[in-house]
């Protein structure tokens, strides 16, 4: 099998159900999701040991869901079935809540960084936000875009933020606070052990 087809040599690409220019907004949206997926894969290579098995499981599931969401954005068929539904959003919320039980208290904005894996997860978080912005722009330009993809990306950025913090915490690395930040997050009462 040859990997190159030469069908894109004139600046167009295939969607599910049609062809568009490679700079089409739809291609930008699912291409940004593809970029995000690659950074999640990079983060996975930086997480070693049993202490991260739950996060690695989450990230592998997320990679598959991102393929589903990208495929949904690439689908322009008149009759379409979307792969991404509400269930993964609920799972992300459950995982965020579970990880937050473990997270150190947070009062101020933090600077992305700490361990290599946490820094990569922060990069993935910012790409997620960009993918969400492009998806919203696409939703405003076309009426055939599943809104679930945007909601999923919104929740995913929250998950990646929390996961980055947990990775650092499990490695014994403190969050580096943005020194000029006011206290912007409410702290809860001391966590019960």
Total strand count, please? 4
- Series of secondary-structure elements, N-terminal to C-terminal: EEHHHEHHE
- Percent of residues in beta strands: 5-15%
Q: What order do the strands of the largest sheet run in, or round the barrel if closed? A: 1-2
Low-confidence blocks of residues = none
Shape: elongated
Largest sheet: 2 strands, antiparallel
Distance between the termini: 57 Å
Give the name of the CATH superfamily. Cobalamin adenosyltransferase-like
Structure write-up:
With 193 residues, the chain is mainly alpha-helical. It has one domain (13-177): Cobalamin adenosyltransferase-like (Hypothetical Protein Ta1238, Chain: A), CATH 1.20.1200.10. It has helices at residues 25-45, 53-74, 87-102, 116-141, 147-170, and strands at residues 12-15, 18-21, 110-111, 176-177. The protein has a two-stranded antiparallel sheet with strand order 1-2. Strands 3-4 form a two-stranded antiparallel sheet. Its EC number is 2.5.1.17. One of its GO terms (molecular function) is ATP binding. Residues 3-166 form the Cobalamin adenosyltransferase-like domain. Homotrimer.
Q: Could you list some keywords that capture this structure?
A:
Hypothetical Protein Ta1238, Chain: A, 4 strands, 193 residues, two-stranded antiparallel sheet, mainly alpha, 5 helices, single chain, two-stranded antiparallel ribbon
């Amino acid at each position: 099998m040859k990997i190159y087809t030469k069908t894109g040599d004139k600046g167009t690409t295939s969607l599910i159900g049609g062809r568009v220019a490679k700079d089409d907004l739809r291609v930008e949206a699912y291409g940004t999701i593809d970029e995000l997926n690659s950074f999640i894969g990079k983060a996975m290579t930086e997480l070693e040991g049993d202490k991260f098995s739950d996060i690695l499981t989450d990230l592998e599931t997320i990679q598959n869901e991102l393929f589903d969401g990208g495929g949904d954005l690439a689908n322009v068929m008149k009759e379409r079935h979307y792969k991404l539904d509400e269930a993964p959003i609920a799972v992300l919320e459950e995982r965020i809540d579970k990880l937050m039980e473990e997270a150190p208290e947070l009062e101020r904005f933090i600077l992305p960084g700490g361990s290599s894996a946490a820094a990569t997860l922060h990069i993935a978080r910012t790409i997620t936000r960009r993918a969400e912005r492009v998806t919203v722009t696409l939703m405003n330009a076309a009426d055939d875009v599943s809104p679930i993809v945007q909601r999923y990306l919104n929740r995913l950025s929250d998950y990646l933020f929390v996961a980055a913090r947990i990775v650092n915490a499990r490695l014994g690395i403190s969050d580096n606070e943005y020194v000029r930040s006011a206290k912007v997050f409410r702290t809860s009462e001391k966590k019960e052990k």
